[in-house]
Amino acid sequence: MAKLTFKRREKKFLVSFEQYKSIIHELLDRGMEYDGYCAGGNTYRLYNIYFDSDTNRIIRSSVQHPKFKEKLRLRAYFLPRSDDDPVFLEIKRKIKGTVVKRRAAMSYGEAKEFIHCGCRPKTDDYMVNQVLDEIEFYLKVYDVKPKVYLSYERVALFSRTDPDFRVTFDGNIISRRTQLDLFCEDRGESLLDDGELVMETKFSGAIPAWFCDILSKNKVYMSGFSKYGNEYTRYRGSDFLHLKDRPAPPIPRIGADKQIQ
């Protein structure tokens, strides 16, 4: 059965494409492997819809960096072609730096019925019902609706010796606040400058010392980049670093250079 709960710490960094290639070399040399979605370094794309109130209550609170915050999103690993295609509804909470993500798998049609009509998917699975209870409570408390579409290409690696340590690279991040339906074409405005990527580390205890050495060697520094948070800043009209309100340009497909050894 697919994992429903993830508890970990996360750190984010903005990197250039050149830094990405250098870091990938060193991660592979350290024995890390590409996950099942990106065998050989190929990218895969994630499609997300974030939910918020009419007043953007959720994201307005989030960008103020409270000790506790939570958000709801719909995630798909490919654009659905019918209501029967699979998606995940996820609640992501951050409590004093620790992230807890809970999710439930369902069809796209079931997710829309749950969000718009309050009709939750039927299941006999106790753990899934627990997650659905939490999502149902969230929907009642916050009265949210679809607000933002976000998609991006990802390369993900995991450690064979430490299953809790993962590194992901996200590029070609695009967003829109119209056509908030996964049946629509994957298009929007870019959140990054050309060639920029968001690197994220996911871990349970501490970042390995050898990975800190890689960051230092490549002059990579923590940025705290939030995709939804930065989208909201741009939406509010701020001239924010790394945000350009323009059509998404083609950027190098991260992980596409298989000749790197």
Topology as H/E string?
Answer: EHEEHEEEHHEEEEHH
Number of helices: 6
Main pleated sheet = 8 strands, antiparallel, barrel
Q: Let me know the CATH homologous superfamily.
A: VTC, catalytic tunnel domain
Gyration radius (Cα, Å) is 18 Å
- The CATH class name reads Alpha Beta
- For the secondary structure, the number of strands is 10
Q: How many domains, in number, for the residues? A: 1
- The CATH architecture designation is Alpha-Beta Barrel
Q: Output mean pLDDT.
A: 89
* Cα shape: globular
Alpha-beta content class:
alpha+beta
Compute the separation of the termini in Å.
Answer: 35 Å
What topology, given as strand order, has the largest sheet?
Answer: 1-6-5-4-3-7-8-10
Q: What are the segments in which pLDDT stays under 50 over at least 5 consecutive residues? A: 239-261
Can you tell me the CATH topology? mRNA Triphosphatase Cet1, Chain A
Percentage of β-strand residues: 25-35%
Which percent range fits the helix content? 10-25%
Can you put this structure into words, describing what you see?
The chain is α+β, with helices and mostly antiparallel strands and 261 residues long. The protein has one domain (5-235): VTC, catalytic tunnel domain (mRNA Triphosphatase Cet1, Chain A), CATH 3.20.100. Helix content is 25%, strand content 33%. It has helices spanning 17-29, 57-62, 108-117, 126-142, 209-217, 227-235; strands at residues 5-16, 33-34, 44-52, 68-76, 86-95, 98-107, 145-158, 166-176, 189-190, 196-203. An 8-stranded antiparallel β-barrel has the order 1-6-5-4-3-7-8-10, surrounded by 4 helices. A hairpin with a 7-residue loop joins β7 (145-158) and β8 (166-176). The radius of gyration is 18 Å and the shape is globular. The two termini are 35 Å apart. Residues 7-232 form the VTC domain. One of its GO terms (biological process) is polyphosphate biosynthetic process. This is Polyphosphate polymerase domain-containing protein.
